[in-house]
Amino acid sequence: MIRKNVLMIGLEPTNLDFSAFPGLDAEKVLAGIQGQQEHLRGLGYDMDVCLTDTGETAEAVATDALKQKHYDCVVIGAGVRLPPAYFLLFERLINVVHAHAPDARIAFNTKPTDNAEAVQRWI
Predict the structure, then answer these.
(1) Which residue in 73, 62, 69, 66 sits closest to 4, CA to CA?
(2) Which of 83, 82, 106 minimizes the C-alpha distance to 96?
(3) CA angle centred on 102, ends 97 and 3, rounded to 5°
(4) CA nearest neighbour of 57 among 89, 88, 86, 30
(5) How many CA atoms are closer than 13 Å to the CA of 70, on its beta-carbon side?
(6) What predicted TM-score, i.e. pTM, was given to this entire model?
(7) Structural domain count of the chain
(8) Which residues have C-beta within 8 Å of that of residue 123, sequence separation ≥ 6?
(9) Which residues lie across from 108 on neighbouring strands?
(10) pLDDT band per the 50, 70, 90 thresholds, residue 1
């Protein structure tokens, strides 16, 4: 079986304002991401992680990650998508994915521990 490549794009957890995410902190987010990498690997996927800042270099960092290999699915994290303060960043990252991985499915997680479900909805 050919393994599918997944890229998860999210904010570096130390950059997040966790007031919008009760019960989470940077340590829990990183643990969730790592657990999802292992879980997806067990399901036959390879997941790379691209963590960005809140805007200055986010597009360049995501572009560099997308140029590394062909991705079958790109997951955009809830930390980028949900807080209104990051709406424009979210929009810019969607366009980066569209430009550099036009064949990839785009999925959205709702927390650091449901990337697998997001991926499996699309591939």
Answers:
(1) 73
(2) 106
(3) 90
(4) 89
(5) 5
(6) 0.94
(7) 1
(8) 4, 45, 72, 73, 105
(9) 76
(10) low
Q: Are 98 and 48 in contact (CB under 8 A)?
A: no
Which CATH number characterizes residue 30's domain?
A: 3.40.50.1110
Which token pair is 118? 């997001």
pLDDT of residue 46: 96
* pLDDT computed for residue 15 by the predictor: 82
pLDDT digits (tens, 9 = 90+) for 91-110: 999 999 999 999 999 999 99
Arithmetic mean of pLDDT, 24-50: 95
Secondary structure string (H, E, C) spanning the chain:
CCCEEEEEEEECHHHCCHHHCCCCCHHHHHHHHHHHHHHHHHCCEEEEEEEECCCCCHHHHHHHHHCCCCCCEEEECHHHHCCHHHHHHHHHHHHHHHHHCCCCEEEECCCCCCHHHHHHHHC
User: In terms of residue numbers, what domain contains 76?
Assistant: 4-122
Mean pLDDT of the chain: 94
Instruction: Name the amino acid, one letter, at 64.
Output: D
